[in-house]
Amino acid sequence: MSVLPQPLRTLWLNAQEELQVINQIVLPHKVQVETLSTTQEVYWAIRNMLVRGAPLIGATAAYGIWLAAKAAPENDWKNSLALAHAYLRDARPTAVNLSTCLDRMRAAWQACYSRAEAIQACRYQADAIVKEDIEICFQIGQHGLKIIEEIAARKNGQPVQILTHCNAGMMGCIRWGTISSPIYQALAKGIKLHVWVDETRPRNQGSKLTAWEFEQHGVPHSLIVDNAGGHLMQHQLVDMVLVGTDRTTREGDVANKIGTYLKALAAKDNNIPFYVALPSTTIDWSINDGLKEIPIEERDSEEVRFVDGLTENGQYEKVRICPENTPARNYGFDVTPARLVTGLITERGFCAASREGLEGLFPEKK
Ligand SMILES: CSC[C@@H](O)[C@@H](O)C(=O)COP(=O)(O)O
C-alpha cells in the first residue's frame, strides 16, 4: 500500500496528526515520506531542501510554528514562538512566502491569551495556508489553460511546446503546482502538449523532481541540459516558456531559480512568450526593484562541485566533477526584469508584468 496520500500532495498530517512531507532530496530514486516532529527538523528540512519551492517552504514553516507552540513552556510560550519565528525565517532568504507565512502565524498567536489557544490558532492558520495554496494553484491552472488553448488553436493538432526551468510544479507547492496546474488542466481537456524540462543545475530540480512529477501525471516531456533552450527556441521548437517565481516585485520583476534570466533573454531574442505562473503569495508588495532588493541565496559550493545519482548497478553515489581544489560559487536564483516577462498568470487572472498590471488584479494593494 502506498504511504502517499491520494490525490498526491507534498505535505499532510497523518492520522496521528504528525507532519508528513515527501523527501525531495532522495527523489526520484526513492519515494520516502518523512515525519517532521520539531521546529528544528522543519528548519533543517527547509534549509537542506528536503522541502523546497516557495509555497511549500512557507506552508512547512507555518507547521513549524504550530510544532513550536505545542513544545513551548506554559509560562513563556509567546517568547518561544517569537524565537521560533526568527529562527525559521533564516532558513532560506529568497522565497518571500517564508516570511509572509511566518508573519501570518505570528498574527494568529499574538491574538491568543493562552498556550492552548495559540496551539489551536496556529493549527488553524497553517491548515488555512495549505487549503488556500491548493485553491490558488487550481485557479492559476484555469487562467493558464486559456493561454495554452490559444496556442493550441494555432498549432493544427501539433503539440504545444512548453519549456520550463526548475520545479514550479506540485513539488514546490501542496498540489497542482503553479506551472503544472495549467499543464494538467490542458491535458485533462485533451490538448496535445510536450514539455522541455531543463535539468536545472546544480540541484537538478528539473531532472529529479519535474521529470518525476510529470511521469506520475503522464505529461509528455523530454529532459534537456540547461543550455539547450536557446537552440530549441532558434529552431521553433518552443511555443512558450513557463516558469515559477520565489519573489515578485510590485513592478513585476521575478526572482526564480538561477538560469531563468538566460531563458528569458533567449525567449525575447526569438520572439517567444515568457510567462510566469505565480500565486499572489509570492508577491512582495514592499519592493519595486528586483535586482537591487531581492536577496539572492548563495548556497554551499559543494553542490556545484559534486553531483549525485544512481550508478549502473543501482547504487546511490556522489561524485566530484572538478579538480579537488577548484573553488566554486553557487548562486541559487537570478532576477528576470519585468521587461522580459510577457505576462504573469495569477489566481485572479493574467496581467502584464508591471505595477499597473498587478495593481489591476489586486486593487486592495494599491
Ligand atoms: C511554485 S515553486 C516556484 C519557485 O519556488 C521555483 O521555481 C524555484 O525556483 C524553487 O527553487 P528551490 O531552490 O528549489 O526552492
Automatic annotation (TrEMBL):
Keywords: Amino-acid biosynthesis, Initiation factor, Isomerase, Methionine biosynthesis, Protein biosynthesis. Its EC number is 5.3.1.23. GO terms for molecular function: S-methyl-5-thioribose-1-phosphate isomerase activity; translation initiation factor activity. InterPro entries: IF-2B-related, IF-M1Pi, IF_2B-like_C, Initiation_fac_2B_a/b/d, M1Pi_N, NagB/RpiA_transferase-like. Pathway: Amino-acid biosynthesis; L-methionine biosynthesis via salvage pathway; L-methionine from S-methyl-5-thio-alpha-D-ribose 1-phosphate: step 1/6. Belongs to the EIF-2B alpha/beta/delta subunits family. MtnA subfamily. This is Methylthioribose-1-phosphate isomerase. It comes from Saprospira grandis (strain Lewin). The gene is mtnA.
